[in-house]
Design a protein that fits this description.
about 575 residues, mainly alpha, three-stranded antiparallel beta sheet, two-stranded antiparallel sheet, elongated
């Protein structure tokens, strides 16, 4: 109690008393004026608190950062209600603002007279955020989104009742392995500075000499991160627009406003091919993967719709009505011939890939294509994304629904602007004191601030991702599962480009030494483990969930082992 009282008195001492004590001890600079930080900072110095007070301060700052992150996310998502900028918001604004909390934590960790020491908080926030997002929310998706696995070895999404721990799992669409490969590619950016840093350390250079030798490398690493960051945003923008266009085509086919022949012409037009060009696009003998992927996206919803017994294959009875819905009306004999010719594995049924391959072959036959219906609604086949689509994502807030559309748009923009502005202001204001608290915990626990920041910082800046993962998972659909996992992989890509770029800017500007070999190895290793799981295991069970969950403490264990027994850093 005496210690608590002493610390409390120190923390609450009046400004004049603190200045008098500083003057008496000779701590003030020439002229008797205190440092600007002592005069203007509204925050309590963590070094003057006891453990209970420090825990309280850390919790308060964490809650404020959490709420600030929610304000930014909520404001940016609300902008998707504004049609002219909805595509840009979803593909560019949301990823950037989602990375702002971690980026500011990294930024403020490298500012100050002891930046070489406190920057460990920044690398802890970066590694902790990346690993946490790829592990705990991923496991939440598997646990709460799992459904029974059918005879084909794939999840049966028609059975949405709670499944047992064994014999259940999830699956996702083709975009997840593609995005996982992109994530693995962005991890290579760490080695732009890590390789020269390891060379400097191996040569026996001290911290100052190492920092001087890494300044130029940090600059080029920053350039590489900027290029990768811009490239990733362009990829997100193009991918979002393509999905939007394909969704319109699929919607048109469902309403029987577009035939499959017209849909093919749309794909050809947007992939740069023409019906007379036999060497590119879908009309080539060997279609390019991108065009075939688009064809699969169009066909996949209907394949699942008419797979009545949910066994992932189509029988003759299931195949005929599907072909009818696609605008082709064969008789029973033609369907039987189709089944026989398309059944490459001889099981008497047609799986999805066999069906798409048959459809592709059918479309290359000019005479048969002329007999197939070719009709479309011109408004649904725009080669450039229009704004006529009905957005099924965000809903207008109830308190704005009584207003006219122009008034709604104005209110949405204003509300979104102040939410994002307030959230950004709070993050800028509280990131620095949060870094001080985490550094102080490291000093008191006699451990590197990296470990403290790794555990605590992500739950302040990314806790909303846990709730978002649960919200998507409980819907138990492959589409929602894909959306949830894509968000997590996208966040990792942003950390590997945007946040790492901020880190390298700090290293370059402050001339810091990159002494994080163990941390980089552990962080990249975990991303590769999870990335390979996403690429190779299209059906993920609770066994996969356990492996992914162990990666979270495993990252800390790898860092500790490399530092204490590997002699790194």
């Amino acid at each position: 109690s005496s210690h608590f009282g002493s610390c409390a008195r120190t923390a609450t001492r009046s400004p004049s008393a603190r200045l008098a004590k500083a003057a008496g001890s000779g701590a003030l600079p020439a002229g008797g004026r205190p440092p600007m930080e002592a005069m203007e900072s509204p925050f309590i110095d963590p070094a003057t608190t006891n453990n209970a007070q420090l825990a309280f301060l850390t919790a308060v700052y964490g809650v404020v950062l959490y709420q600030a992150s929610n304000l930014i996310a909520g404001g940016s998502e609300m902008l998707q209600l504004v049609p002219p900028i909805a595509g840009i918001v979803g593909s560019i604004v949301l990823p950037i603002l989602g990375a702002v909390p971690d980026g500011m934590m990294v930024l403020f960790s490298g500012v100050g007279p002891k930046a070489q020491e406190t920057v460990a908080v920044g690398i802890g926030a970066l590694a902790g955020s990346t690993v946490m997002l790829l592990t705990i929310p991923w496991v939440i998706c598997i646990y709460y989104g799992r459904v029974p696995i059918g005879k084909s070895g794939k999840p049966d999404w028609s059975q949405k009742d709670k499944a047992s721990l064994c014999g259940s799992g999830i699956s996702f669409q083709d975009s997840i392995p593609k995005n996982a490969k992109l994530m693995l590619a962005t991890t290579l950016l760490y080695f732009v500075i890590q390789v020269p840093s390891s060379w400097e350390e191996a040569s026996g250079a001290d911290t100052r000499r190492q920092a001087k030798g890494e300044t130029g490398v940090a600059f080029w690493g920053l350039v590489a991160c900027c290029v990768a960051f811009c490239g990733y945003l362009v990829h997100c923008f193009l991918d979002a627009n393509e999905d939007k266009q394909l969704a319109e085509v699929i919607k048109g086919i469902e309403k029987k406003q577009i035939s499959i022949g017209a849909a093919l012409e749309f794909i050809q037009a947007t992939s740069g091919s023409t019906p007379d060009d036999k060497e590119v696009g879908l009309m080539a003998d060997s279609p390019d993967p991108a065009s075939m992927t688009r064809l699969k996206k169009i066909c996949h919803p209907f394949f699942k719709r008419y797979d009545y017994d949910k066994d992932q294959v189509l029988s003759q009875a299931e195949l005929k009505p599907l072909l009818h819905d696609l605008g082709y009306y064969p008789n029973d004999r033609t369907v039987a011939d189709l089944l026989k010719g398309s059944d490459t594995n001889g099981d008497g049924q047609v799986n999805f890939n066999e069906f798409v391959q048959y459809l592709y072959t059918f479309m290359l036959d000019t005479d048969r294509m002329k007999q197939a219906p070719n009709f479309s609604n011109p408004q649904l086949l725009k080669t450039k994304g229009g704004d006529d689509d009905e957005d099924e994502g965000e809903e207008m807030p109830e308190d704005l629904q009584h207003l006219s559309p122009p008034q709604q748009m104005m209110r949405v923009i204003v509300r979104s602007a102040w939410m994002m502005a307030l959230g950004t202001f709070l993050i800028l204001l509280f990131s620095d004191p949060m870094v001080d608290c985490l550094s102080e915990w490291g000093a008191r626990l006699n451990v590197s601030p990296f470990y403290v920041s790794f555990v605590l910082a992500p739950f302040a800046s990314n806790a909303s991702e846990l709730l978002a993962a649960y919200t998507y998972a409980v819907k138990k659909t492959e589409r929602n599962m894909t959306t949830a996992l894509s968000t997590l992989i996208g966040a990792a890509c942003m950390n590997n480009t945007f946040v790492l770029g901020i880190f390298l800017a700090i290293v370059y500007q402050q001339q810091l030494a990159w002494q994080f070999t163990a941390e980089v190895i552990a962080m990249v290793l975990i991303q590769w483990i999870i990335g390979i799981c996403a690429i190779c295991r299209r059906t993920q069970t609770m066994v996969t969930a356990v492996i992914i969950l162990l990666c979270y403490p495993g990252c800390l264990a790898v860092v500790w082992l490399l530092k204490n027994y590997g002699g790194l850093d």
